[in-house]
């Protein structure tokens, strides 16, 4: 004898499985505070990774590395575009954190400083010619 309110495969209530598209999407995507923190963390990792990888590739290849552009340098030069995407994302996350009161004040200040530093890095990358005009 089976329970009519539950499915046979999972044992979950049918109402939960028959939820609308909005409910399914909400369950699969992380929360906004998580996405805001992830953007800030990814920005930090990619920015530091770009600087270290750039120094490593130029250090190993010499001055001609900037002119000949070996595959390693091409991979490194793809990272500023990712920084340019993540910096405004982190800034948007910081703005949402202040508006909706995510986290503690200390964490919001940290996220804001991180976003501002990321935007400053983007400006500097643009001035140095690593980002297209």
From TrEMBL:
Residue ranges spanning the membrane: these are 34-57, 77-97, 109-131
Chain residue ranges for the region called Disordered: 1-22
UniProt entry keywords in alphabetical sequence? Membrane, Transmembrane, Transmembrane helix
State the name under which the record lists this protein.
Answer: Uncharacterized protein
Organism in which the protein naturally occurs = Halogeometricum rufum
Name the lineage. Archaea, Methanobacteriati, Methanobacteriota, Stenosarchaea group, Halobacteria
